[in-house]
Description:
This protein is α+β, with helices and mostly antiparallel strands. It contains one helix and eight strands; from the N terminus they run αββββββββ. The protein has one domain (about 25-120): Lipocalin, CATH 2.40.128.120. Strand 4 and strand 5 form a beta hairpin.
Amino acid sequence: MKTLLLSALLAFATVTALAADNAPLTGKWKVHSSIAGNDSDSECTFTQKDNDLTGSCSTDQGSSKATGKVDGTKITWSYDSEYNGSPLTVKFSGTLDSAAGKIAGSVSVEQFGVDGDFTATTVK
């Protein structure tokens, strides 16, 4: 009986450890944004650890450090950039559809008072 209980506990610990390593946002994402009628594409590389999201996003303006949070299927991240020499922060808020490998939601740039929408898909 003790052997059976020990085996069950070991199996549970293994499954729990594997689930903790399963970070659905870790990897490369292609992001298409439409902000105030202007379309743009970027590529973000994320590392998810628990509820924290870190990485970088590359645009035609260069690469910037990205940080964010994961709360279930709700995803937020932001990065600093510039437009015509003016600094700005691009903020994303979306919902993950892990089965489709897609995030969709809204994007905003408060410094310019503009917002729009975005979709992100995993890069394989």
